[in-house]
Amino acid sequence: MGASSKIRQLDPAAICRSSDPLAVRELLTKIGDKWTIFVVLSLDLLGGRARFSELERAVPGISQRMLSSTLKNLERDGMVIREVFPEVPPRVEYEMTELGRRLLHPTQGLVDWAKENWEQVREAQSRYDER
Amino acid sequence: MGASSKIRQLDPAAICRSSDPLAVRELLTKIGDKWTIFVVLSLDLLGGRARFSELERAVPGISQRMLSSTLKNLERDGMVIREVFPEVPPRVEYEMTELGRRLLHPTQGLVDWAKENWEQVREAQSRYDER
DNA sequence: CAGCATCCAGGACGATACTG
DNA sequence: CAGTATCGTCCTGGATGCTG
């Protein structure tokens, strides 16, 4: 991109005008929730395909309720596909879609940023709280 | 850690081990809230420095309460600096720090992703809801 | 195994009113 | 102008127990 180099700015107003005023914020809010990013990263780590219990183990601290709900949202958003095998005991596998995989790049950018800067953030917080 | 270039993967477990298990998620949750990204983008748009009322106008729909609270968090995290001018009527200016500016790149990545993919997400949701 | 149903506590957020 | 205070609502998410 960068064809018209003029529109290289970040324009919140433009964001709000781009088709749907709520679209961007909605997507950002989605992946900003407590578990989505970790589930997405874990699923990718597990080769892009895993079953429920594998994810449960891969994401320490997540409850069944939240894993279930997070996966359901991801499925609804087209990020993962849920496949049920008619077996006993039941087996369910979740696979990342192409759309889901595209989320990995910007996510990685955020994770890197967080890793590189969280210490400075902590220091700033300490300084702030001292007063 | 990180010496071996093999560790180029996204490892949630590694994320959890990197100094503080909650750090990454905490930062992600922060910028995933309802207003932070828009305030950051707007402040950048306004030249990296603006007063309260300018931001209020730049971020449509935000209330004084939320703008105030969002700015306070950003200040605490070292993303912006709050400068009070002892005048009548009072004037307060907020300026982005270097740390805050560093947040812009990954944020832009997310915004781009959201813009490029929200339509596909909508379609997926429609298909899902039809059943 | 892979979940759903229920209950509950805490926080996010909006609306409104007030102030140095 | 740049907030704070207060109130009420909605939603998130944790804990627990039950099921096909």
Description:
2 copies of one chain form a homodimer. The first copy, chain A, is mainly alpha-helical. Chain A has a single domain, classed as Arc Repressor Mutant, subunit A (Orthogonal Bundle). In chain A, 58% of the residues lie in helices and 11% in strands. Chain A is built from 7 helices and 3 strands; from the N terminus they run H-H-H-E-H-H-E-E-H-H. Chain A has helices spanning 12-17, 23-31, 36-45, 52-58, 64-76, 98-102, 104-129, and strands at residues 49-51, 80-85, 91-96. Chain A has a 3-stranded antiparallel beta sheet. In chain A, strand 2 (80-85) and strand 3 (91-96) form a beta hairpin. Chain A is elongated, with a radius of gyration of 19 Å. Mean pLDDT of chain A is 84; it is low at 1-11 and 16-21. Chains A and B meet through helix 1, helix 2, helix 3 and helix 7 of A and helix 1, helix 2, helix 3 and helix 7 of B. The structure holds a DNA duplex (20 and 20 nucleotides).
Write the layout of secondary structure elements.
The structure is a homodimer of 131-residue chains.
Chain A: H1 12-17, H2 23-31, H3 36-45, E1 49-51, H4 52-58, H5 64-76, E2 80-85, E3 91-96, H6 98-102, H7 104-129
Antiparallel strand pairs in A: 1-3, 2-3
Chain A binds a DNA duplex (20 and 20 nucleotides) through residues 33-35, 51-53, 56, 63-69, 84, 87-92.
